[in-house]
Specification:
Strand content: under 5%
Oligomer: single chain
Number of helices: 4
Order of helices and strands: HHHH
């Protein structure tokens, strides 16, 4: 016979505080990723004259690689240790985020005519922010998840 200990649910204030800290940490890592993404995009597109879509995809991939380290070592360091499954999920969902970000950028750049240097950066920034909401949800739900739901 096994005994199961009951842990009452944490108060809402504790859960909200934990979620707030998680959002801030996600924002710190994500913010640094935005800087990396925009710097790489501007270097590739405006300085090296890559096509807009090639520059946005490449810049997003560079940011994705640096973000994994930030999420693993800072934002979600209290979660389960790194596993092959976690790394695979991160890159699968990040790839989906890159696809979403690229589609949004294309809509702004090609569809809305945001083609100048300032306008293309605005399109890039908006696409990053919108795709980041998706990333936050999937990273916390599937990639860096808590194994004990009662702790959350």
């Amino acid at each position: 016979m096994t005994t199961t200990s009951y842990a009452p649910p944490r108060p809402v204030s504790v859960r909200l505080r934990r979620l707030s800290v998680e959002i801030v940490k996600f924002g710190v890592v994500g913010g640094s990723g935005v800087v990396v993404n925009l710097l790489a995009f501007n270097l590739l597109f405006h300085a090296l004259r890559w096509t807009p879509m090639a520059a946005t995809v490449a810049a997003s991939c560079v940011a994705m690689a640096t973000n994994y380290l930030g999420f693993r070592c800072y934002a979600y360091r209290d979660r389960a240790a790194r596993t092959r499954r976690q790394i695979a999920l991160f890159f699968v969902f990040s790839g989906a985020g890159v696809a979403m970000e690229s589609a949004l950028f294309s809509a702004g750049y090609h569809g809305a005519g945001m083609t100048g240097p300032l306008a293309s950066n605005l399109a890039k920034t908006l696409s990053i922010l919108l795709a980041s909401a998706f990333r936050f949800l999937v990273y916390r739900t599937w990639v860096f998840r808590r194994h004990d739901a009662r702790r959350g």
